[in-house]
Amino acid sequence: MASDEMKTLKVGMKMMMERGFAPKFDGTMDPIHLRHVVQAAQERMATEPDVTFVPRTYAGIEAEISMPKEAKDDYVIVYIHGGGLICGNAFSSRGYASMLAGESNHPVISFSYRLAPENPFPAAVEDCFAVYQEILREFAGKPVYLIGESGGAYLCIVTAMMCRDHGVQLPTAIVPYSPPIEFCGELDRHFAGNEDFTVTPEGLGALGELYVGSTNKGNIYAEPYYDDFHGLCPMFLAWDENESLSVDSNIIVEKLNQQGIEAEHYSYPHCFHAFATTGRGTPESYEIMKNTIAFFEKHALRFTDDPSRSA
Description:
With 311 residues, the protein is an alpha/beta fold. The protein has helices at 4-18, 31-43, 94-104, 123-138, 151-166, 201-211, 246-259, 283-305; strands at 51-58, 61-68, 76-80, 108-111, 144-149, 173-177, 235-240, 263-268.
């Protein structure tokens, strides 16, 4: 059963969606209009008072670091924002990035990867891989974590796959919240109990047309569903049991289990897509945030205890 805070938040979100002030990814979406709606909604999020925003550039891409007042430097978090691969940027993501930085007391790097439809696959994947490699060099010898929601969660997974396949050191671990791993209709998300009012199966199909296109269907970096997930790093996953993309998260956990890769995972009923980035806003999302940070701390200790991982 969802908490009272979650129920209240969902009612408010639905009202905002009806008035055009909150995003809805369905079959009728206009990507450019949706981009403005998402940016306006994200910019209304409060930022952490004791976190400053340090402008940076990685691989020629605009970025910034959410830096807590007394940040620890034993690991770094890279936040890859969501937005269906058509919305968002480093600056409109400050609400969650700063909350994560403040709660973990560690720097959080976010950046503005290229967006579809102007820049379809593989532009975002190339940007994330390039940025990750530069961050890895800057923070050599320290754990680097990737975290993201929705489209950003997909990019976390694909970036790890690119590292695996190109001989680059993998992230210490990744945290994909509500990731899509297939866009072009192979998975049936019209399951009984689907309550998703933010991302519909039809909306995912529309995103597939904008982002994947007809020539990249089945490409493992465009649609990780077609990969077996061998050789990947540990993952922490969280999702809503009643969202369209719960199908994807369950498949990821199954694939990781088959490969013997750690897959810490949490699913919650009657929430909404990518609710984890609400952070302290609901008991469910705050529990995920605390468990995520505990996951980071656990793997930072393992990293320190295994010198080969910092090579």
